[in-house]
Design goal:
Structural class: alpha+beta
Strand content: 35-45%
Strand order of the largest sheet: 8-7-6-5-9
Oligomer: single chain
């Protein structure tokens, strides 16, 4: 049976500095201030949207959620040239409404998460690992956009 879980990042204002905490599904269910139905129906200025568990794990066995940032290394080789190097690929896990599934870029997450061959280039690669999420570590994606 598929495991249905969510999590949420909540910012706490403390001494003028923004800090936050990632609430697990179990913590959301036990939340004293709000009922789960209120959390599902509303958005709060101090909380991220709910992030759904994808049902998949990274190379370290950690559960992958929507809006997680994943990293893998791809061995890029261009025959007939001197290009032969390992490069970092950093991607965000997103829900694609048009395909009703979780994607990394234009590729379905389920097809990429355990792969050791990059399907678009046929180059060797490491398996994806979670390095953060867009709410706690937005700077991780900025590197990829340069």
């Amino acid at each position: 049976m598929r495991e249905i879980k969510f999590r949420q990042f909540v910012w706490n204002e403390d001494d003028g500095q923004s800090a936050g905490v990632l609430l697990s599904w179990e913590e959301l269910l036990q939340e004293k201030d709000e009922s789960v139905s209120v959390i599902f129906k509303n958005t709060f200025s101090n909380a991220s949207p709910l992030m759904q568990y994808t049902g998949l794990t990274d190379k370290n066995g950690r559960k992958i959620y929507e809006r997680d940032v994943l990293k893998r290394r791809v061995h890029v080789v261009m025959y007939g040239t001197d290009l032969n190097e390992w490069v970092d690929e950093i991607v965000e896990v997103e829900w694609r409404e048009d395909y009703a599934g979780f994607f990394v870029g234009e590729r379905p997450l389920y097809a990429e998460v355990g792969a050791t061959i990059d399907r678009s280039t046929l180059c060797s690669c490491t398996q994806f690992e979670i390095i953060g999420n867009v709410f706690e570590n937005p700077e991780l994606l900025e590197v990829n956009e340069k």
